[in-house]
Amino acid sequence: MVEPLDHDLPLRGAQPAGASGTTKLTDLAIAKVAAGAARDIPGVHALGLGTSRALGAIRDAVGSTYEPAHGVSVEVGTTQVAIDIVLTASFGVPLHELASKVRESVFAAVQELTGLQVIEVNIEIGDVHIPVPDERTAKQHEPRRVEHE
Predict the structure, then answer these.
(1) Are the CB atoms for 129 and 88 separated by under 8 Å?
(2) Which family would the database say this protein is a member of (predicted)?
(3) Residue-wise DSSP of 50-69
(4) Which DSSP category does 20 fall into?
């Protein structure tokens, strides 16, 4: 299990001589790193589920801020992090392969950019986006009506 985060401990790492101070990484910052790495993978349509994305669109319409870490939760310890991601896949993408690629990308990005040891990345594919055909395409597939005189 992940050790609880002690927000007063500095991150471990090499510091230049004479440099002092602490660096704190918030859960949100780490979640955004994970979200960015997940979104970079082709086949990830969006993070989160369709219903929560619809609520996000409503928030956007009334002027609320966009939440780039939507669909990502993290449990951060002093030196370790566990990450849970819920995503919507694009139709036609092999889902197990997508999950593996997202997991690898998130592991690498979070470890490289935060210095924390990633102990697990859990992926939940909660939805598959099937694009709605545009009006032109839909008309091409409509049955033709033959009028008899």
Answers:
(1) yes
(2) Belongs to the asp23 family.
(3) HHHHHHHHHHHHTTPPP-TT
(4) -
By residue range, what is the domain housing residue 66? 27-131
Look-up of token digits 């002092």: 20
pLDDT of 144 higher than 70: no
Q: What is the pLDDT of residue 27?
A: 95
> Can you give the CATH number for the domain in which 63 is found?
3.30.70.1350
As for how many domains the chain has, the answer is 1
Q: How far is it, in rounded angstroms, from Cα 30 to Cα 52?
A: 21
The CA distance from 50 to 94, in Å, is: 19
SS3 of residue 101 by DSSP: helix
pTM score: 0.70
Helix, strand, coil percentages (3-state) for the chain, rounded to 5, are 35, 20, 45
Residue 72 predicted with pLDDT over 90: yes
**How does pLDDT run across 16-27, given as a tens digit for each residue?**
677 889 889 999
